[in-house]
Design brief:
Largest sheet: 5 strands, mixed
Oligomer: single chain
Number of domains: 2
Strand order of the largest sheet: 4-3-5-14-6
CATH class of the largest domain: Alpha Beta
Number of helices: 14
CATH topology of the largest domain: D-Maltodextrin-Binding Protein, domain 2
Distance between the termini: 14 Å
Structural class: alpha/beta
Length: about 325
């Protein structure tokens, strides 16, 4: 599935790496004349990656007004379904593409370039009025969320908790967040109780938890970061380690486990030959894109990892380095595969 762009083209374009198409939003023809970029970039998929892609799109269009970038939300699974039939150029994903999605794309003659863009820490949250939860263990979360769970009251989670109903809010089944959370907490991807308020839109989950005094929910860290006044973060105790809350520091240094994970974009390899797509992806992986990752509440990859991702894009390296959601991944090792 590996496909190489012409080395000569890579060399000719190399001077533009990490600089997008220049601060003016113009590219240069071989004769040196300015040529404004035009075209359309269609992005869809994960609600978790959406804030990053939306921010990058807005800044990119300021520098390249001739290019229209649209960013939608249909969940990781929904986005990859559209991607597999050629409806979109780029799919946002909060987990790696799975074998069935990969096969669907291949069946339709679509190769893809897999690019990591950030780290996220899935955040377990309660309503600010909750004054009894100081932390939860992975085992307690598993007991709450596993298929067939009969836990419907807070005092069933821990005897010291009050006799109050437990209302659950979590990712919908088309969400990569759902896939990763079930793999990390329950131990099996997609294994979850079904009697909870589910949505692929994290803003909907924020509204649910913030309006329900008995709520417990989970979603991407950026959505907690944007709504700190409406939510209470729950530290997670993993094994014998002390409870750890997600933060840019604990997500970045790997101490927030097992709920830290990479975020991706998948680029249609044929679309990646178009000038507007090339410029957009370079902008995304460049200095401005990296700064926007932090600005919207996520954790940038290490500079070396962005360099490796950019090399993957510039050389047109297709395929995936993963086989579904991977918990506790060391990212630089994956990128070198």
């Amino acid at each position: 599935m590996t496909n190489k762009l012409a080395l000569a083209a890579v060399a000719a374009l190399g001077a533009l790496v990490l600089a997008g198409c220049g601060s003016s939003g113009e590219s240069k023809t071989p004769e040196g004349a300015a040529e404004k970029l035009e075209g359309k970039v269609v992005v869809d998929g994960s609600s978790t990656v959406f804030p990053i892609s939306e921010a990058v799109a807005e800044e990119f269009m300021k520098e390249n007004p001739g290019v229209r970038v649209t960013v939608g939300i249909s969940g990781t699974g929904g986005g990859l379904k559209k991607f597999a039939v050629g409806e979109i150029d780029i799919s946002d994903a909060s987990r790696p593409i799975d074998p069935a999605e990969r096969d669907a794309a291949q069946k339709n003659g679509i190769d893809f370039i897999e690019l990591p863009v950030a780290f996220d820490g899935l955040s377990v949250v309660v309503n600010p009025g909750n004054d009894w939860v100081d932390y939860l263990t992975v085992a307690e979360l598993k007991a709450i969320w596993e298929p067939g769970s009969k836990i419907t009251n807070w005092n069933q989670v821990r005897p010291t908790f009050p006799d109050r109903p437990l209302k659950l809010y979590g990712a919908g089944t088309d969400s990569g967040t759902f896939d990763y959370f079930t793999k990390a907490i329950v131990g099996e991807e997609k294994a979850s109780r079904s009697d909870y308020q589910a949505s692929e839109d994290d803003n909907s989950l924020v509204t649910g938890v913030s309006g329900d005094a008995n709520a417990l929910g989970y979603f991407g860290y950026a959505y907690y970061s944007e709504n700190k006044d409406k939510l209470k973060l729950v530290p997670i105790k993993n094994g014998d380690a002390d409870p750890v809350a997600p933060s840019p520091e604990t997500i970045g240094n790997g101490t927030y486990q097992p709920l830290s994970r990479p975020e991706f974009i998948y680029v249609n390899a044929e679309a990646a030959k178009r000038p507007e797509i090339i410029a957009f992806v370079r902008f995304y992986l460049g200095e401005v894109g990296q700064a926007l990752v932090s600005e919207v509440g996520y954790v940038p990859l290490a500079p070396e990892d962005y360099k490796l991702a950019l090399e993957r894009f510039e050389t047109g390296k297709t395929g995936t380095a993963f086989d579904g959601p991977t918990v506790g991944v060391k990212f630089s090792d994956i990128l070198k595969r």
